[in-house]
């Protein structure tokens, strides 16, 4: 793991872990994990004012159960030679600054 951040999705605590930034075979691959840090039991899910479950969803709308994790990746054109660090922006999680690029 390169870095991590504590975040909240709809007031549900979560952790984003930036796992790797790798350049090879003409592409840049970024991998991260979302962990739902909510410790509520399934029957005690918080609900909004209309009675809908307030649940944690990953950036791709995949449900991540309390205590569970889900990995994600994104692939881009290879970074130019000589680039050794980048800033990685993960929507709703913010920016990971000066992340080391692996080649």
Jot down its keywords.
mainly beta, two-stranded antiparallel ribbon, 103 residues, 50% strand, four-stranded antiparallel beta sheet, single chain
The strands making up the biggest β-sheet line up spatially as 1-2-3-4
What is the tally of helical segments?
0
What's the β-strand tally? 6
| Helix fraction by DSSP (H/I, runs of at least 4) | under 10%
Q: Mind describing the biggest β-sheet?
A: 4 strands, antiparallel
**SSE order:** EEEEEE
Counting helices, strands and paired strands, the structural category is mainly beta
Average pLDDT confidence is: 84
Instruction: Detail the poorly predicted runs.
Output: 56-60
Kindly report how far apart the N and C termini lie: 16 Å
Molecular shape: elongated
Share in β-strands: over 45%
Rg over C-alpha atoms, rounded to the nearest angstrom? 16 Å
What count of structural domains? Answer: 1
